[in-house]
Task: structure prediction
Amino acid sequence: MTRVPLPPPTAERRQTVCQFCIVGCGYRVYKWPVGKDGGPAPGENALGIDFRQAQPPLGTWIAPSMHNVITERDGRRYNVAIIPDDECVVNRGLSSVRGGGLAQTLYAPDRPTKARLGAPLVSDGQKLRAMPWDAATDLSARVVKAVIDRWGPDAVGMKFFDHGGGGGGFENNWAIGRFFFSGVGTKNASIHNRPAYNSEVHAAGDAGVGALTNAYADAELADTILIVGANPYETQTNYYLAHMVPNLNGDSLSLKRQTFGAEPVDRGRMIIVDPRRTMSVATAEAAGGADRVLHLQIEPGADIALLNAIARVILDRRWHDIAFIERHTERQTFEAYQRSTLAIDRPIESVVSEAAQIAKIPEAQIYQAAEWIAAPKTKGYRRRSLIHYEKGLIWGLKNYENVASIVDLGLLTGNVGRPGTGISRLGGHQEGYVRPAYPGGRPALNVDEAVRRGEIKVYWVGGCNPVLTTLRAEAMEAAFLERGKPVHAALAATEGKPVGARVAAVVEALKQGGMMLLVQDIYLTATARHAHVVLPAAQWGETDLTSINGERRLRLYEKFMDPPGEALPDWRIIANVARRLRQLYLDDLNPKMANRFLDYDWRTNEDVFIHARYSFKGDNKDPMEGYAGVTYKLLRELGNNGIQTPTRLVNGVPVGTVRLHEDGRFGTPSGKARFIPAPLPWPGYASKVAKQRERYRFWVNNGRNNHVWQTLYHHQLVPFFQDRFPRPYLEMHPQDAAPLGIESGDLVELSNDMGKVEAMAYISDSVKPGHTFMLFGQPRGAVGDLVSDHVDPATTIPYYKGVWADIRRLRADPKLKETVSFLPQNIAE
Amino acid sequence: MTEKEKSSNRGCVGCPSYGSFPVARRDFLAIGGAGLVSLAAARGSRIAPAEAAESQPAFPVTDIAPLADIAAGAEMNFYYPDADSPAVLLRLPSAAQQGIGPDGTIVAFSLLCTHKGCPVNYRADRTILICPCHWSTFDPSKKGSVVIGQASEPLPQIRLRVMEGVVQAFGVDGLIYGRHTNIL
Ligand code: SF4
Ligand code: FES
Result:
């Protein structure tokens, strides 16, 4: 019979925040020795709950998925329970499907997570073999030094996470950024799945508007919430459930009245711009009624045209915020914006009908959206609209102009810096961006191309999996294979020889076009399998880390268990290599280079945190993540509610910032926001994309979903998740599937000029005919293989969503049909 | 790359290995750290349910209805394993995993959502169970698997059998919401 053990009153308690999405829900960790369980009476367990009776709905419960048994380095076994924190203002006791399974992702030697990396590995030409840390550090440092000395810093390529949550956070990001930017000094840097080191929202930055401007409470206060290119039920779950839904269903009305006094308030409305009818649309309608939800089911790439047409209607109706524009924006940018982006020389009807045609939506919906966003409320009060956007827009047709179009719409309507408003990313992962400035310019260098052209001699990849997630991924993997070969051979030929001889052989291989691949990660990923040296890292819960969520809430994610084997926190791995490099340069009598690797003698995680706090300066001296005065001690005291960055010191005490720009100041030299004009209301498709679109029949929209996180690095090891989606699914409309003989559970092949990939068909009317949707970044079928190498020339951001391919049925998979549910994923009532 | 490599399972644990250098198991074992085990060793393992070592009281056997009374499309509420645990018996339009009856279409589930315990509703035209609180949905033909939603456990399936023409409940797969053990 299934049961979960209860923590005894003596159980150790730790605060933490979910490692997964941007929302950053608070969790409580209980840890107690195996065999020392608590009892069901309230005094017998750490929760103080009477488990002799069943808990009422919405009570506290330890689901089996929230418990695990771990083994520490000394061999002692403990129960760990990780349950959502009722007192955290972010999630208010809610878990999501991902957070509810946090305990399942912990390293355990008797569970599938035993696949974690626990020792440094080096290639012997055939296999990866264990190697002591000192030797791995020395070899890595010597190769990096040899490459800098012979080819210059730009021949050292890096691809690392810069996120919060997971194994990221301020500490690791600071160490890694400092090493590569101030130490090595390379411009060939890149992050996550991107080919370059760039902001995804340069346009917002140029406008002087922060990336994460609002507080989650603003979603409870807004009159209208606009969501562009995001699916918050699935991928910003508890922000949506705990803050947006109460606005739609009226639960937040009393808070609105209390906050706004005489101002008229009502239940909120929601506008969702998404080519799919997602669970977010279905649940918003269930919560608020279909008449309060407007779903604009657009065509790919139509966002800019749509948003600019909405803005044009608002301008023509004179619903724009004239007072805000005059006081807080640079006048000439507003004029340019009206002329070019909004095409005021053209009749409004022609702009709106053109946008409606591009987006294939009724014109009336454009007028309606404009009204919901900006028509004044009764008694002349301005409508408060909260404007949110994410990857549908960011990874869209033209990154810079896409983001500009929504930021401009927000500025036009004055929806920033007031309760109930905001112009903000919804976010994917959490944040914790503290780094010295990237030494390159804008647009940033395209590292993928530098790898393929042979300019990168050593490529250090940490916590990223380009083989699955970069654009034109097949070609990237081919380069890893091809350019990796001579280095594997050099390492094989010099096995057991002194390190000097090994490095000399590697350098010879690099001269012949080889590339050394260093991979720092927690699992042997698809990319790590090509590595020459693998460096095992600690993950969430195995070391103290700090991060912020989507409303800049900074918290301490406490360590509650040991990393496996000899794995180390990323910052420590980097610091060890930096210290070794310093010594090697000192031995070389090169103090100039040696000094670039000075001050890596951090003893604790907090040492790194404090070092970053004093050294980090963002664009405006008051960067989004600035955290003056914050210590681990303070964060422990503040618990899972933390403090919202940026902080400033008032009488020596750190004070947080609920929402950005409330003081009316923006991140430009003038302190005023800038409209970012675009040359035309809609730029059209780039030629490479247009060609693919003409040649192939289906649009392959792609992204995340509710159940699984990123590349499944954890979730493929947890049966609950793996059994739900044993393969990436491809949503196809029944009208498209039937003529091709495709049924749910069939395996299909997608192919185009970039590559081929397999998926599991999931027939659904969530997509329009001609559209499909595939889960991205999956180990058993990576959409990256189909993504063209086109990037926005202004920002080096790819058009990941712009994939077209042909689809054919391969075969039925009876096992999938029998065990996997293919019921619709967008039914809420 | 060969055609075979292209379509193989990159980075998928438990899938055929891929890439240039599979890890050798003995190398991991040689360094002796706890849990340093190769991918090959992880293949096929599954998490066992959190079983308690001590012995448990047995599930009761409860009559639900005569098999002959369970018509097509039937939906019957009952309580199991005790009066605080609402459950539902369904006769689905087609065979279900662990379904009983002549055509394997009869199944039963706890009604308490495994997210936060709200009672779920059955929508017959879509054969789906929907939680009104945060919209977790469950597939009764696939062992209560979470179609989409925030529940991190399947809906507990009630074990059914037919004894002398009567459908009986005699056990539960999974833990019922709000309990640390199914039999309190
Ligand atoms: S909503 Fe995001 S942060 Fe919260 S529990 Fe789910 S995955 Fe974790
Ligand atoms: S209680 Fe059922 S989805 Fe939350």
